[in-house]
């Protein structure tokens, strides 16, 4: 007497087409024994046939759009890195164009001690290459540190301030960035983290994919290219709309304003040039402003604005500019 | 020239043109194979992108490859990896309860067009592992042996799960099986 499990196995093999002649004979015998056996067998075969109908209407992906995305993320990125911008000009500090770098002083410091390496950008932005080949672009007044066991089993760095990461692919050694209360586990990628003291930590994923979480990795948010998330202290990470088109301005040396109210343009400029812009007449704040500036200079840009919206710009003291009618 | 030979020739001559031809020929195949295992189009597209990024990074080692089969396999593995990672993060889709199964089975059929959708729902409602195995066998046309190797389980387990899937589907699709 054949048990049911064995019969099921025979039917499974018959469906796959891998049944042997001897097994087929056994199955035939069993089918002849009872009409109920035959019904059971037919029903399963019919189910198999019917299941072919599923997934016949799988949505068609937009191949052209996906090809464009692939081109941008992979083909047009300088190998082997995946970067957004093809221009790698951010560190080329054209003296005429970039006002802010004029500030003297120790621009960059490498501190070693207690087995910890600290890479710090002073008043200047910096590009550093980590022992594993990953590249980090540090914004001004930002610093990155890692222990001497970095890259032996895992790759862990701590960030204060703001940085753009191009992480070297290495699935065996996960790359984690601790910044403020956040942890970003990298799944092969480039992204920007902004983690200034006492401020919300913000993450922008430029290419690839990362897992973003608080100190406790539970509840990590997986983010892919083009997405942004924030972490407020003692809260769960939260995905948000990135409303700042200039989030990479400091790295790309480019400010872009498309019909933005002046107050937003001024905020971006304050960040970018490390200055303060004071506006006394609040009616000025909502005037729309347009323009894209490569390697912008502060004075040049202020002059463009003063002509475009007919305002007066005066330098009140070093690094403080007043805008008035 | 047969497609594969043509692609191989392009790969030798012009990497970029090769990539464009490969992508435009097989992106839908890759994306749909992933979608059948991970039924969310945005995720399927992301994962399909990753399949092609991997191919691009490995382009120097593709000399002997039969692209269609290679890409199909890469798509299946990418989807299974994704399911695994999700599970480890605790986001596993729960097994469907008998009550829900009943719901799938007894919802009234209105149009022929909906029949396909209902059959798909029934497959989607299978328990996780069972569904994976059924999809790989039925739609990805992999042999039990290939499935067993891919999932690192025994052929016997594959056979058992296949039968479990068919029996469950038989119940939830009984109205179409009269």
From TrEMBL, chain A:
Gene3D superfamilies: 2.60.120.1440, 3.55.50.30. The keyword Cell cycle does not apply. InterPro entries: FecR, FecR_C, Ferrdict_sens_TM. Residues 123-210 form the FecR protein domain. Keywords: Membrane, Transmembrane, Transmembrane helix. The chain crosses the membrane at residues 90-111. This is FecR family protein. Residues 255-319 form the Protein FecR C-terminal domain. The keyword Transmembrane helix applies.
């Amino acid at each position: 007497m054949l048990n049911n499990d064995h019969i099921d196995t025979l039917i499974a093999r018959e469906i796959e087409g891998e049944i042997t002649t001897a097994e087929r004979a056994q199955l035939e015998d069993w089918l002849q024994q009872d009409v109920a056996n035959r019904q059971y067998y037919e029903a399963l075969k019919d189910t198999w046939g019917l299941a072919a109908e599923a997934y016949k209407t799988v949505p068609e992906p937009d191949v052209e759009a996906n090809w464009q995305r692939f081109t941008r993320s992979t083909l047009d990125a300088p190998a082997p890195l995946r970067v957004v911008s093809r221009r790698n000009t951010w560190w080329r500090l054209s003296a005429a164009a970039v006002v802010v770098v004029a500030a003297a002083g120790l621009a960059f410091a490498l501190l070693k001690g207690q087995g910890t390496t600290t890479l710090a950008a002073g008043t200047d932005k910096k590009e550093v290459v980590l022992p594993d080949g990953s590249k980090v672009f540090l914004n001004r007044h930002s610093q990155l540190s890692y222990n001497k066991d970095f890259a032996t089993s895992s790759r862990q760095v701590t960030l204060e301030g703001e940085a753009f990461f191009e992480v070297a692919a290495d699935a065996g050694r996960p790359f984690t960035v601790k910044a403020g209360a956040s942890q970003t586990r990298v799944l092969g990628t480039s992204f920007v983290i902004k983690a200034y003291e006492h401020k919300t930590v913000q993450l922008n994923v430029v290419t690839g994919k990362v897992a973003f979480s608080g100190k406790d990795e539970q509840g990590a948010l997986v983010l892919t290219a083009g997405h942004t998330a924030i972490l407020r202290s003692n809260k769960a990470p939260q995905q948000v709309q990135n409303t700042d088109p200039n989030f990479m301005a400091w790295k790309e040396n480019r400010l872009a304003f498309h019909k933005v109210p002046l107050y937003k343009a001024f905020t971006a400029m304050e960040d970018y040039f490390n200055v303060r812009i004071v506006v006394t007449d609040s009616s000025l704040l909502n005037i729309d402003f347009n323009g894209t500036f490569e390697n912008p200079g502060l004075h040049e840009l202020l002059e463009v604005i003063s002509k475009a919206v007919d305002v007066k710009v005066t330098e009140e003291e070093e690094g403080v500019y007043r805008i008035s009618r | 020239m047969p497609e594969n030979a043509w692609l191989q020739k392009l790969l030798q001559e012009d990497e970029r043109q090769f990539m464009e031809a490969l992508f435009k020929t097989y992106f839908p195949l890759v994306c749909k194979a992933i979608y059948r295992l991970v039924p969310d189009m945005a995720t399927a597209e992301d994962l399909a992108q990753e399949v092609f990024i991997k191919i691009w990074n490995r382009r120097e080692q593709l000399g002997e490859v039969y692209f269609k089969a290679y890409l199909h396999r890469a798509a299946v593995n990418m989807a299974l990896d994704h399911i695994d990672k999700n599970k480890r993060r605790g986001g596993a889709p729960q097994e469907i309860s008998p009550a829900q199964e009943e719901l799938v089975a007894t919802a009234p059929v209105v149009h022929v067009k909906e029949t396909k959708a209902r059959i798909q729902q029934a497959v989607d409602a299978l328990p996780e592992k069972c569904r994976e195995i059924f999809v790989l066998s039925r739609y990805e046309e992999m042999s039990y042996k290939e499935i067993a190797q891919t999932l690192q389980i025994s052929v016997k387990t594959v056979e058992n799960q296949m039968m479990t899937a068919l029996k469950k589907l038989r119940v939830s699709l009984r109205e179409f099986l009269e």
